[in-house]
Design brief:
The chain is mainly alpha-helical. Helices cover 79% and strands 1% of the residues. The protein is built from 19 helices and 2 strands. The model has no long low-confidence stretch (mean pLDDT 88).
Length: 460
């Protein structure tokens, strides 16, 4: 192995730690939400904004920072993003009031753009099979980081009495990552046009803000939610009109809607429905009391964490293995295999939800198939996008996947509500079956779209 190869491997290793940190943060805060609520003296409704404002900030900043990375350098934007998140984690740990904590969560929004920027750096430094393996390592580290964050939240809360001390753990993790980004991560060398389409960026940011806000308001304020979603539709129509006429568009829609990319984006959106939309569904189903509800297994929080942990571990395995499998059946084949695996997992839940071994195999199959998609979809995006637009291409991938999950969360919550058993305060099994049918159809139709995907580059 020559010196250049060793340097590339070192760079990938450092980025793997940075992405592990991203996953760690995403997994660490959720188990501590009740502690944060009690510490700040706020209500359950208020603490929900702890997650919401970060999601909204991410939706706005991901496409903007990703595109600016293509213009000014992906490492430069990664540095800005990591400093913003570091300041945000400090505020979350030490801010004396809830409004300041929410400011910290807003500043943590760029956490979601770390991965697109890292993928762009990897794509700029290495190509072919090595790049695919590197992408798999990044995705795997994100998944493992989320699992580690969840476990560490419980571990540190058991002996750190001070809320500030508990919430300082992410500060340390992000600080180490910041040192790496500022010292050993190289800058990408390919640049796109330096002209900035500010009207396009503003329209895109306001659209994402309106869309995500409208989706989140559907359950509580349906009338206002519909009005906000109509505004979002008008904004995206104006955005498309503007972008198709701009000489330096914020999003190159002609490239994004080409046969190389639109099947990937549509699959990402539909996969996001399952990936993010079923997280709480799985938890409440496993916790259901079979004696009173007729479904579930009455699992405790610890038992549920073991089952979901298996899903996350197999997703990490799938993300690592996807490049080796792609070498044998092509990257398109990996994506088709992944979507079929997830769809079969959902069908198994529909027909075998009363038998825990069937449920366990279903969750494992969905995790492994999901890992193949988590690794293969961003790889397909980077390989199909122009060299000077890798950042925005992967940013869009990240955004549409998250958008699928956001829509699914609202739809699935309403679906379970339609099947509510008033005396039990829970949905009947019909609600869960409906959700699984939607997920099975969403992923089951993906191979049709993926078959239309035109190859752009071949890994060597």
């Amino acid at each position: 192995m020559n010196k250049s190869q060793k340097r590339v491997l070192a760079v990938v290793g450092f980025l793997v730690f940075v992405e592990f940190s991203s996953g760690f943060l995403q997994g660490y805060y959720v188990p501590l939400l009740n502690n944060i609520r009690d510490h700040l003296g706020v209500t359950d409704a208020s603490i929900a904004w702890f997650i919401t404002v970060q999601t909204l900030a991410a939706g706005v900043c991901v496409p903007i920072l990703a595109k600016l990375g293509d213009i000014f350098g992906h490492r430069r934007m990664l540095r800005i993003g990591i400093v913003s998140v570091l300041v945000g984690t400090v505020l979350v740990a030490f801010a004396p009031s809830f409004p300041l904590v929410l400011v910290g969560r807003i500043l943590s929004g760029p956490l979601a753009v770390w991965l697109p920027l890292e993928l762009a750096i990897v794509h700029n430094q290495i190509q072919g099979e090595t790049a695919r393996r590197a992408i798999g390592m990044l995705i795997s580290s994100l998944t493992i980081g989320a699992l580690a964050g969840t476990l560490c939240a419980g571990f540190f809360s058991s002996f750190l009495e001070s809320p500030a001390a508990r919430l300082s753990v992410p500060v340390v993790i992000v600080a180490v990552s910041a040192v790496l980004v500022f010292t050993v991560i190289p800058e990408s060398t390919v640049r796109t046009s330096r002209a900035i389409d500010w009207p396009g960026f503003i329209l895109l940011a306001v659209f994402m803000l309106a869309l995500l806000s409208g989706i989140r308001m559907l359950g509580a304020e349906p009338g206002l939610a519909v009005a906000v979603l109509v505004i979002a539709l008008v904004l995206i129509a104006v955005f498309v009109w503007w972008e198709l006429r701009s000489k330096t568009p914020a999003l190159n829609l002609r490239v994004l809607f080409s046969n190389r990319l639109w099947p990937v984006y549509l699959t990402s959106f539909l996969f996001g429905i399952v990936l993010f939309g079923t997280q709480s569904i799985t938890t409440t189903f496993l916790a259901g009391q079979p004696d009173t509800l007729g479904y579930g297994f009455g699992f405790s929080a610890g038992q549920i964490s073991l089952v979901t942990g298996l899903n996350m571990l197999l997703a990490a395995v799938g993300a690592i293995l996807y490049s080796s499998i792609a070498a044998k059946i092509t990257l398109k084949g990996v994506l088709i295999l992944g979507t079929i695996s997830v769809a079969v997992g959902q069908v198994m839940l529909i027909v075998g939800h009363l038998a825990f071994p069937v449920v366990l195999v279903s969750i494992a199959l969905s995790g492994l198939g999901g890992g193949l998609l988590l690794g293969g979809l961003p790889a397909a995006t980077t390989e199909a996008s122009p060299d000077d637009e890798t950042g925005i291409a992967t940013g869009v991938y990240n955004s549409v996947k998250t958008l699928g999950g956001a829509i699914a969360g609202a739809v699935f919550a309403s679906t379970l509500g339609l099947f509510l058993i008033p005396e039990a305060g829970a949905s009947s099994i019909g609600g869960y079956i409906t959700v699984w049918v939607i997920c099975a159809v969403a992923t089951g139709i993906c191979p049709i779209f993926l078959a239309m995907m035109r190859s752009h580059r071949t890994a060597v």
